[in-house]
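Milestone M4 deliverable, item 7.
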Amino acid sequence: MPEEEDALWQMSQYEGFEIHVAPLVREHEAQSRPPASEGYTYIGYVCHPGADPKLPGHAVPFHADGDVGFANAAAALDEGMHIGRTIVDGTHPDLTVLPLVTGGV
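Output delivered:
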C-alpha cells in the first residue's frame, strides 16, 4: 500500500485497527505550483495490527482527493487520520473495512 517508501508514516490504533497516514508535499504541474495554503496532501491505509499492507486484501488504501490541499503537514495528517476513522466506523461513503473483517485477514 505505501506508495511513498520515504514518506513519514504516522500510525494510530483505533477500534481494533491501525490507521497509517503519511503527509506529502503535493505534486504539481511543472508550470504551476499549488498555493502555499494547499501545499500538502496525504496517503494512508487501514489494516489489522501487524498486517502487511503490501499483500492484497490486507489493507484498505485511501488518499486525499486530487484537488484537495492543506496548508501544512500537520493539517494533512489530521485529515488523513479523520478519514481513516470514518473508514473504520463505516461512515465513509466509498471505503470500508468489511473485506478485512470477512476475509479473515
